């Protein structure tokens, strides 16, 4: 009886360890997928001269485009709702490993 309990406790401990390892792997794989998606989707738009502060990183270009449209076309927003069809993130930093170097 005691051996069964000990075996069950060991199994539970192993399962807990496996869950922690899988959680870490999932986080890393999710980041890798996001990086791949960010680099594959190339029709990205960068707005030169716009400070990419924390607010910009959270809300993205959609917020800036809405401000530009409101300032330049004040009646347009009243006539029809504005929506962005597609918007992709670009990586926050440049990965030097992924840049092709001349050899």
TrEMBL record:
Q: Which family does it belong to?
A: Belongs to the transposase 22 family.
Provide the L1 transposable element RRM domain boundaries: 42-98
Q: Please report a single Pfam family linked to this protein.
A: Transposase_22
Q: What Gene3D superfamilies would the database entry show?
A: L1 transposable element, RRM domain (3.30.70.1820), L1 transposable element, trimerization domain (1.20.5.390)
Full protein name: L1 transposable element RRM domain-containing protein
